[in-house]
Amino acid sequence: MKISKVTIAFLLPLCLFLGGCESIKNITDPLGDDKEENKDAKNETNEANESREVKVDQINLYFVRPADPLTIGQDVELYVDDDEVGELSYSTKIQTTVKPGTYELATKVGWSLSLPVTGLGGACKFEGDYKFTEENYYFKIVFDPGLLCGEHEIIGILKSEYSDLAADID
Description:
Mean pLDDT: 77
CATH architecture: Sandwich
Helix content: 25-40%
Low-confidence stretches: 21-27
Shape: elongated
Number of helices: 3
Radius of gyration: 19 Å
Order of helices and strands: HHEEEEEEEEEH
Strand content: 35-45%
Distance between the termini: 63 Å
CATH class: Mainly Beta
Number of strands: 9
């Protein structure tokens, strides 16, 4: 059986598009693949760390999503340990509080158009573990494009940079 060049040219991008972003498989609960056992162990670790080295009762987390023409149509969902904190649309900011400890921060785009500027599979989930012991932490959410899919990365910044970015939003 001979496969034509036209068929290959059609099937190859189709396969890349369909397999581009594995986070599409669980769109209703993007962090649901984490096990409850890990969550319980993480909570116990958080409580043990709190008693040893923390001097504050509450941590303030500040997030800003600067304007980015590549992702103007994408609303980014922000999660702290599997709990949705809020949704950051184009050029917005959000603030939340947590108790001292180590948390998983994640961003996810519910439905993403598969545009060439964001990658063949649109935008994928980003997640990372962060330890909080001081009173205030500042983050910016920046899109990092990729070949198959890009990510909305959570990047720690200084208060002065956060103030400058937040002033542009207000």
